[in-house]
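Consider the tokenized backbone below.
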């Protein structure tokens, strides 16, 4: 199967009744409406597995040309700093925003145009300018907490669901300790990301998100 906008995209079946995957020898684009009109023409080799993961209901996208790994290595960064999951799949967006990025439901065209192309555009922008083209959440659980900070209304059910998602991350025990502290952690305390910097200079949004989550847990009398 081929997609008109991406003629090099081929869909394969691993085995009868098995999962499908796509290989795209070169993802090319020309975009001028991102990052205040900055045009980037670039390409990536990718593979897409049509299966969900515990952190996402979307197909899993892998960059197979090792380009992102080289960007991380050249800048002494970890893969997660460039939004790569432990499985090697890219993190297109946090799970609660998946439906908002695909308002018409899942289809290949919107999946590429609304999520895949913007992700790789951002990677190319970062490679060239050493900064991200737009505001974005941190990777993994830290970004999830930053997202929670932006939510206006919380209910007992929404907080419970949020906590269940947080528990899937390996860092849950560290987060749990912060949430169980009698007093709030402060900005001069070390950030939980492990870089050795203080919260106020590192992930201040995460700190505020923890404050908000802790307050909601107490308000709804939720047990951890």
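A designed sequence for it:
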């Amino acid at each position: 199967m081929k997609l008109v906008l991406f003629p090099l995209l081929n869909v394969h079946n691993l085995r009868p009744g098995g999962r499908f995957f796509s290989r795209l020898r070169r993802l090319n684009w020309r975009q001028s409406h991102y990052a205040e009109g900055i045009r980037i023409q670039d390409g990536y080799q990718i593979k897409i597995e049509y299966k969900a993961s515990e952190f996402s209901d979307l197909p899993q996208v892998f960059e197979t040309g090792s380009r992102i790994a080289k960007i991380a290595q050249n800048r002494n960064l970890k893969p997660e700093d460039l939004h790569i999951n432990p499985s090697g799949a890219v993190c297109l967006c946090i799970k609660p925003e998946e439906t908002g990025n695909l308002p018409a439901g899942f289809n290949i065209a919107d999946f590429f145009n609304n999520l895949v192309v913007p992700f790789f555009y951002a990677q190319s922008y970062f490679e060239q300018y050493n900064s991200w083209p737009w505001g974005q959440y941190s990777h993994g659980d830290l970004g999830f907490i930053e997202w929670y900070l932006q939510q206006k209304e919380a209910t007992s059910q929404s907080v419970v669901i949020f906590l269940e998602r947080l528990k899937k991350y390996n860092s849950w025990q560290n987060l749990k300790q912060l949430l169980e502290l009698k007093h709030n952690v402060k900005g001069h305390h070390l950030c939980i990301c492990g870089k050795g910097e203080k919260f106020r200079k590192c992930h201040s949004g995460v700190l505020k998100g923890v404050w908000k989550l802790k307050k909601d847990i107490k308000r709804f009398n939720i047990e951890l």
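The chain has two domains: 9-129, 140-219.
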